[in-house]
Amino acid sequence: MESQLSIIDLILQAGFTVQLVMLTLLLASMLSWYMIVQRFIYFRNSREEMFQFEERFWSGIDLSQLYREGNERAADGQTILGMESIFRSGFKEFSRLAKQQEMDSEAVIEGSRRAMRVALSREEERLEKHLSFLASVGSTSPYIGLFGTVWGIMNSFRGLATTTQATLATVAPGISEALIATAMGLFAAIPAVLAYNRFASRMDMFVSRYDTFVDEFSSILYRQAYAVRARDKKAG
């Protein structure tokens, strides 16, 4: 308990600049932890939703039925994200273009792929949310803490000019409070770096799975487009 009080006393007795550095690092650490928890929950939910949709998609269900189910959930106020959002964008564009008989199969598929690529880009932006902040905290916090340390030590040695006898007890408090800034910088940086690396790896996994789904779904739509055009020719 005494060590905790002594650290608090050192922080309270630190100079204004060092205290400002500590406050900045404390706020950065609190924000980064909030974003770490938020991203963890988001990635966990996205993973579960992706697996559930993949299981539903490859179960042999009619694609029109799968799209209608999404419409019903969207009408109930549920936000559809991830792989299902990509599916819905591609299928909606495919259904719209397939009705235009003057368009050939290649044009229909190309339009559907463009729509899915746009949806994939939006999903990638959602996955990247807050990651740049975590990267910034991880890369800059040690230097901010080091700045506070250098400033505090500089003030401690400047204070020696007004003393007649320089002893360790004279400079120890100033150096100690300055080193706390470095410790806080590392405390803010290390979790942010670890979380960024973890989430960046998960994001790459999601983007790879989404990209693979675009190719697989395009193949399915390709076959359906030719089947639709074949029926149109017979009907004509």
TrEMBL record:
Upper classification of the organism: Bacteria, Pseudomonadati, Pseudomonadota, Gammaproteobacteria, Cellvibrionales
Subcellular location: Cell inner membrane; Cell membrane
Gene Ontology cellular component list: plasma membrane
Keywords recorded for this protein, A-Z: Cell cycle, Cell division, Cell inner membrane, Cell membrane, Membrane, Transmembrane, Transmembrane helix
Pfam family, one: MotA_ExbB
MotA/TolQ/ExbB proton channel domain ranges (all copies): 84-211
Oligomer status and interactors: The Tol-Pal system is composed of five core proteins: the inner membrane proteins TolA, TolQ and TolR, the periplasmic protein TolB and the outer membrane protein Pal. They form a network linking the inner and outer membranes and the peptidoglycan layer.
Stretches that traverse the bilayer: 12-37, 131-154, 174-196
Major place of residence: membrane
Record function comment: Part of the Tol-Pal system, which plays a role in outer membrane invagination during cell division and is important for maintaining outer membrane integrity.
Keyword Glycosyltransferase recorded: no
GO BP terms, alphabetized: bacteriocin transport; cell division; protein import
Family to which this protein belongs: Belongs to the ExbB/TolQ family.
Topological category with respect to the lipid bilayer: Multi-pass membrane protein
Protein known as: Tol-Pal system protein TolQ
Top-level lineage group: Bacteria
Organism annotation: Kineobactrum sediminis
